[in-house]
Hints:
Blueprint: H1 7-18, H2 20-56, E1 62-65, H3 102-110, E2 115-130, E3 133-142, H4 144-150, E4 157-160, E5 168-172, H5 173-179, E6 186-190, E7 196-205, H6 210-215, E8 216-220, H7 221-228, E9 236-241, H8 247-258, E10 261-264, H9 265-268, H10 270-308, H11 310-318, H12 323-359, H13 375-401, H14 405-410
Amino acid sequence: MKRGLPFEWIVALRFLREGRMQTALIIVGIAIGVAVIVFMSALLVALQANFIRRVLTAQSHIQLLPPKEVARVLRRGSGGIGVHDDAIVQPPLQRIKSIDQWQSIAAQIQSMPGVVLVSPSASGSALVVRGDASRAISLIGVDPQVYFRIVTIPDKIVHGSPRLTNTDILIGIDLASDLGVSVGDKVRVSTAAGSDNTLTVTGLFDLGNKGANQRTTYVALRTAQSLLGLVGGVSSIDVTVRDVYAAEEVARKITAATGVEADSWIATNAQFFTAVQAQKTSNTTIRFFVGLSVAFGIASVLVVSVVQKSREIGILRAMGISRGQVLRVFLVQGGVLGLMGSLGGCAMALFALWLWQRYARNPDGTPFFPVEIEPGLFFAAMLLATLTGLAAAFAPALRAARLDPVVAIRG
């Protein structure tokens, strides 16, 4: 023991100091590899979270819909009455239907583990008229107290307020431009059921999509039920869950428990979810190959060190140092190289992320997407680099421990 350090640490640090150039180069190489891993991981996680946030702020995690109407073939009976086997059966026109016993179903879903919010809604097609201008719209009736916690319409209001009483309507900015209306104006809404009502525009929203801004409108749930002929009924139930990636599993449980078709955001955005999974796979692949290059770099440096220090190792063995101590000397070198390189890499990654947040901007000056710096990612990278250094050092350390003292000294 010297200076409070075990013998293995003293020898390992001395070996590293004697090969300063090799030590510096491998530490820089490890630092660059760790910086790439941390920077890419943080960036891809933030990008993925931004994509998912954009998708899920415009829709619920799970949506329950009533069963579709299907045409059943009437087979020929004994009296010859029926339909021929080669007859063409056309699908029936899908009418707006209510979910049977939706109140009890909503209560049952709310009590399921993992479910956060349940919001009934009534939606259908309608026609909005203002003077000589008219447009076909998608009318969505909601309970704003609950629904606006699922789909954050208040955050998308650009003019007016998200107030929804029985005589109010929220419309998109592009629809408002087409109709020539603004906040406070009145529009007439009519449906195929023959119902109509005059409503006051209380707010204009921007969903970030021109087509959606031209079609989508929001009214109070009771107003939509009256216009669509769904008195007391709802055409869908929106659900949010605690874990967005478990939405498909929760949807299957809801369908099994209630018998109502439940579609998760994963199923309705299958291509998007596939792209997200591809991003995860590419990130894992990048980290694997960068970590592999770091491991080979550490191993190659320590193999050279064993060859260069064979005489010193032989002398130490002749002085009575055990094979286990020699093994630990080189394991300590690998661990120290991994730890020092990871510290430098984390500092480089932190600086790179700061530069990204400062200079990577949209044309309007806003950041591309927020990047959250998670301490856990840095600690995981440091731990991974240190363990990689130990693993890479094992083979050279084993070779050094097996050196015969006499042969090593003569060599």
